[in-house]
Write a structure and sequence with these properties.
The protein is built from 19 helices and no strands. The protein is mainly α and about 400 residues long. Among the domains are: about 100 residues, Serine Threonine Protein Phosphatase 5, Tetratricopeptide repeat; about 60 residues, no CATH class. Helix 4 runs antiparallel to helix 5, helix 10 packs antiparallel against helix 11 and helix 18 runs antiparallel to helix 19. The longest helix is centred in the last third of the chain and has 20 residues.
Length: about 400
C-alpha cells in the first residue's frame, strides 16, 4: 500500500489508535510515558520514543495542528532522539514543536525552532529534510510579514523537490512540498504575482488530492480561501469555505471549521447579507478562541471589522481593528499590519475623526506595505488614500467619508 493511503487509513482509525496509546501514559498525561508496558513488560527507550511520536502524530490529527498535548509529546521525545541518535525522528519532533509554536506563540520563538530544523537538515545533508526546513522558514517568515524571504525559502524547497525527485522518508502530518506551495503562493500575491500565485495554489490542491493527503488538502483549501479573500471574490470564498466544511466534517477535522465559518460569513456579508454574515463570523471566532490557537485571530477580526462596516456599525468595526492590532503586536503576526492600518483610516474617516489622524493611518499603511514589499497592499492603501483625498477636495465628507473597503 502507498504511504499516502496508509496515512489516510491511519487517520480514519485515529480515535481507536489514540485509545490504545493512552494506556502507555500515566493517568492520561500525554508525555509521561510509562516505563512498563500494559502487561508488565519493560519498555525500552526505543519503545518510549515510538509511543511518544505516534501519540504526537495522532493527537495532532484529532485535536488540531496546535494541540498542546502533541507539543508535550514531541518535547519529551526530543532528548530520546538525541540519546538514541535518531535524526529523522528528531526532525519530526522539532517540526511538531514548530507547528505548535507557529499557531500559539510569538513568532520569534517559532523562528528559533525553524532555524534548528534547518541546521539539522544541513548537518544531515538530507534533501527531504531540507524541503521541510524551507517550509518551516517560509511559513514563519510569511506570518512575520517578510514576504520576499518567505517566497525565497518556499521556492528553494520546491526547487529541491522538483529537481531531485525527493521522496520523503519520514511521515509528516502535511507533506512539506505542499506547504512550500501554499506559502509560496500567498507570498507571491503580496509581491504582485497575481497570476502565478493562483497557479501555485492550484498545484498545492492538486498535489494534496493526488497524494490522498486530507490534512494537506484541508490546509491548501484554507489558504486558497485566504488567497481568494485577498482577491475580493465572495462567490469563490463561499465555494471554498463550503468545500472546506464538507472535507473537515467528513474527516472530523474540527479545528478547520471555525476558519471556514469566518470565511463564509465574510462572503455572505460582502454579498449583502450582513446579518447572517456577522453571525457566522462571530460564531467562528468564538469557536476558534475556544481552541486556544492565536495565529488566525487577528485575521478573523479584520474580516469581522469589514462586515461590521458594511452593516453601518463603524464604531464596532474600529474596536475590532484595534483588538486585531494588539494581537498582531503581541504575537508578532505582521502579515496584515498594512491592511489593519488602512482599515483603521477608512473607519476613522467614516466617523468624521480628525483629518490629521486619518491621514496618518493611511500613510502608515502605505509605509508598512512598502517596507514589507507587499506591492498588492501598497497599491490598495494608495488607492484608498487617493479616494479619501478626492472626497475631501470635493467637500463631500462633512459628516464623514464613505470609502470603499478596497
Amino acid at each position: 500500500m502507498r504511504p499516502s493511503l496508509l496515512m489516510s487509513s491511519a487517520l480514519d482509525a485515529r480515535g481507536p489508535l489514540l485509545s490504545v496509546l493512552a494506556h502507555f501514559f500515566e493517568q492520561g498525561r500525554w508525555g509521561s510515558a510509562l516505563e512498563m508496558g500494559v502487561e508488565g513488560q519493560s519498555l525500552t527507550a526505543e519503545d518510549r520514543l515510538f509511543i511518544l511520536m505516534q501519540a504526537g502524530r495522532y493527537l495532532t490529527a484529532t485535536r488540531g495542528l496546535g494541540a498542546p498535548e502533541a507539543r508535550i509529546c514531541y518535547e519529551c521525545a526530543e532528548p530520546l532522539c538525541h540519546s538514541l541518535n535518531r535524526p529523522l525522528l528528531l526532525y519530526l519532533a522539532l517540526i511538531g514543536q514548530w507547528r505548535y509554536s507557529l499557531i500559539n506563540e510569538k513568532l520569534t520563538a517559532t523562528m528559533q525552532i525553524a532555524k534548528r530544523v534547518h541546521s539539522l537538515a544541513h548537518e544531515q545533508k538530507d534533501a527531504a529534510l531540507m524541503i521541510g526546513a524551507c517550509r518551516a522558514l517560509s511559513g514563519t517568515l510569511y506570518y512575520s510579514g517578510d514576504f520576499e524571504s518567505a517566497r525565497q525559502y518556499a521556492m528553494r524547497g520546491l526547487q529541491i523537490w522538483r529537481s531531485e525527485g525527493v521522496q520523503s522518508h519520514v511521515e509528516e502530518v502535511v507533506a512539506p512540498a505542499i506547504g512550500c506551495l501554499y506559502y509560496g503562493a500567498l507570498s507571491e500575491w503580496h509581491l504582485g504575482g497575481i497570476a502565478s500565485c493562483q497557479a501555485t495554489m492550484a498545484e498545492a490542491i492538486s498535489l494534496a488530492k493526488e497524494a490522498n493527503d486530507m490534512h494537506a488538502l484541508a490546509l491548501a483549501l484554507w489558504h486558497t480561501g485566504r488567497l481568494v479573500y485577498c482577491e475580493r471574490n465572495p462567490v469563490d470564498v463561499e465555494r471554498i469555505a463550503a468545500d472546506l466544511i464538507e472535507l473537515s466534517t467528513r474527516h472530523n477535522f474540527s479545528y478547520f471549521l471555525p476558519g471556514a465559518a469566518v470565511l463564509r460569513g465574510w462572503a455572505r456579508s460582502i454579498s449583502g447579507d450582513t446579518s447572517q454574515g456577522i453571525s457566522l463570523i462571530e460564531d467562528g471566532i468564538e469557536d476558534y478562541r475556544a481552541t486556544g490557537s492565536m495565529i488566525g485571530l487577528s485575521f478573523f477580526l479584520v474580516l469581522k471589522a469589514e462586515a461590521l462596516y458594511l452593516a453601518g456599525r463603524t464604531p464596532e468595526a474600529l474596536k475590532e481593528i484595534e483588538e486585531a492590532e494588539i494581537l498582531a503586536e503581541k504575537y508578532e503576526v505582521r502579515v496584515w499590519c498594512a491592511e489593519q492600518r488602512r482599515l483603521r483610516g477608512v473607519f476613522l474617516a467614516a466617523i468624521g475623526a480628525d483629518e490629521t489622524q486619518i491621514e496618518a493611518w493611511f500613510c502608515a499603511a502605505i509605509r508598512t506595505a512598502k517596507e514589507q514589499k507587499s506591492t498588492s497592499l501598497a497599491k490598495r492603501a494608495e488607492a484608498t488614500y487617493a479616494e479619501y483625498r478626492r472626497q475631501k477636495a470635493s467637500g463631500s465628507g462633512e459628516r464623514g467619508f464613505r470609502l470603499p473597503l478596497w
